[in-house]
Design a protein that fits this description.
This protein is of the alpha/beta class. The chain contains 4 helices and 22 strands.
């Protein structure tokens, strides 16, 4: 019995020693590889930080000036076309590619970071969107009557919106911080049909216009009131900046560019311009209430959720961006192709017809570039 017990103890001891040996081997393996994993993880982290530094540098470049943003339409920017390797951040290097996207208001930044040993490379892609005026007409309050029509872009009111007569159309989309007559005047939700109108909605303020830029670069500057009467330019002519410190009248004319009126603006008579205007690719969104597979249901309609590239318009009084520091009114049947921002009232626009232009909206000179990130994606990459 004693010999058997000693033998059993020996076997158990041997088993314990084998287990301990196996454990030590496993422990040594994990300790060895853990240090490698920690090093690898650190290298990945450094590569990612370098890519993030590249994104930051790309955003800084886009914010540098409006010209930088615009010039990307014509081609890449030196230093931001994967043509320069930056080493200003400790731990490795990075390079940057800035390009356009299918959306005219967006730019894509692709930043690639490589850790100094070259074993880890990370890539980050971000899309930056530029804030711009997305409404045809923006005003503290909107009062449309008569036969006023707005096409291709929403209308936005910073207080309430009143629509009557032929101006009470099922288009365009309508956004108001207060009630919208004949739609919703009760603050209690729901305040929208999610198709055509949004009452009691958080309408953003329009981007702040850079008055100093327009005043200093005005082609025609008027310290007091000004009447533009029977004046006409060609559609192919260069844009001009018209800056009026007082009130202005635009009558039986066609002007193109930017019109800044610090007082009141009256659009008299008819416009004198006729041409094929560019239809925004997403203009169909304004007509969801009436849009069917048939074409010709609205200006530029090419069938369900599709628009033509151009549309012939006439009686155009102004093509471009209009800012009115006071009130805007109209008589006759003038047409505007562009964007209008009013600081006062938009009552009394009567038979005005408005065609929104996203291209013109994007080119309005504001006090800052106002770009925001809309997407972020990380991936492994090659240098």
């Amino acid at each position: 019995m004693e010999k058997r017990e000693k033998g059993a103890v020996l076997v158990i001891t041997l088993i314990i020693l084998v287990v301990l040996a196996a454990f030590m081997v496993t422990l040594t393996f994990f300790i060895t590889h853990e240090s490698k994993w920690v090093v690898k993880l650190k290298k990945k982290s450094v590569a990612l930080q370098l890519a993030e530094a590249g994104v930051d540098r790309g955003v800084w470049k886009l914010n540098e000036s409006k010209a930088i943003w615009d010039n990307l339409e014509d081609g890449p920017i030196t230093g931001y076309n994967n043509d320069v390797v930056y080493t200003d951040v400790e731990g490795g290097s990075y390079k940057i590619l800035i390009s356009t996207t299918d959306n005219f208001s967006e730019r894509k930044i692709i930043a690639t970071g490589m850790e100094s040993s070259g074993s880890e490379v990370k890539k980050i892609e971000v899309v930056m969107a530029k804030q711009y005026i997305q409404s045809s007409i923006t005003a503290p309050n909107i009062v449309f009557g008569g036969n006023c029509k707005v096409h291709w872009g929403p209308i936005s009111s910073l207080t309430t919106m009143s629509l009557s007569g032929s101006a009470d159309n099922p288009y365009p989309r309508k956004y108001s911080r207060g009630g919208i007559s004949s739609r919703d005047t009760d603050p209690a939700p729901p305040n929208t049909d999610d198709v055509e109108y949004w009452a009691y909605y958080n309408v953003p303020d329009p981007p702040e216009v850079d008055f100093n830029y327009y005043r200093n670069n005005a082609d025609e500057y008027y310290p007091g009131d000004k009447e533009f009467k029977n004046r006409s330019v060609s559609h192919a002519s260069a844009d001009c900046i018209y800056y009026v410190e007082g009130n202005a009248t635009l009558k039986n004319s066609y002007l193109k560019g930017t019109l800044i009126v610090m007082g009141n603006l009256n659009l008299g008579g008819n416009g004198a311009g006729s041409y094929s205007a560019t239809v925004p690719s997403d203009a169909w969104k304004e007509y969801a209430k009436i849009d069917t597979v048939a074409s010709g249901e609205y200006a530029g309609d090419n069938g369900y959720q599709a628009v033509s590239s151009t549309y012939a318009i006439n009686k155009v009084a102004f093509e471009g961006y209009i800012y009115v520091g006071g009130n805007i009114s109209s008589s006759g049947t003038p047409t505007i192709n562009g964007v209008v921002v009013v600081a006062g009232s938009s009552a009394g626009v009567g038979n005005l017809t408005m065609y929104y232009s996203s291209e013109i909206a994007l080119n309005v000179q504001t006090t800052n570039n106002a770009i925001t990130r809309t997407s972020w994606k990380q991936s492994r990459a090659e240098w």
